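Each field is listed here:
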Amino acid sequence: MGAMTAIGIPVAILVFLIAGAVWYQLFGLALSFWVGLAAGGFTFKYFYELDKKDLASTLNPPEEVWPVPYPVAWGSICDVLRGSGVDTGASGRSIWNIVHEDDSRGSIQAKLSFNQMLGVGRTKEVMAREIHLNVQLTAEGAATRVKCVYEVFSPMGAGMVKALVRKAQEDFKKHMEVNRIQ
């Protein structure tokens, strides 16, 4: 559950109560429960959709043009993937594994496997999770076009996934800036 969904639950309950009360005052008891339920449901759906859009925009960051030659961009991405570990909580430190790289086509595929504690109270469970990354590099003169696409197969625990994806993107940019030829 994302932050907006967590906000949406109490707001939906409040909207349910207010809409039901207003309907009751204006038209009587007949449909007040159903009107409140519909209003609360649409409110919750609105907040849930905001979370889904945020996750989709995080997993598909916009294409960027890095002001570095292709070999520097390639090396920056590979160095970050091979060298940067991320702390994922339940599984300790996890490292991106490069699954496939094709320098001639400019593509890198990587996978981050980790365990995450999901649920609360008695329903807590350690789940194995994976984030897949596909990077496409295209040389454009002295610059390089970089397109990253992340995939997760379960929206559960999206907060950690978003944090790990944002960290990877920041690490790519930092490493590229360090290796940039002035």
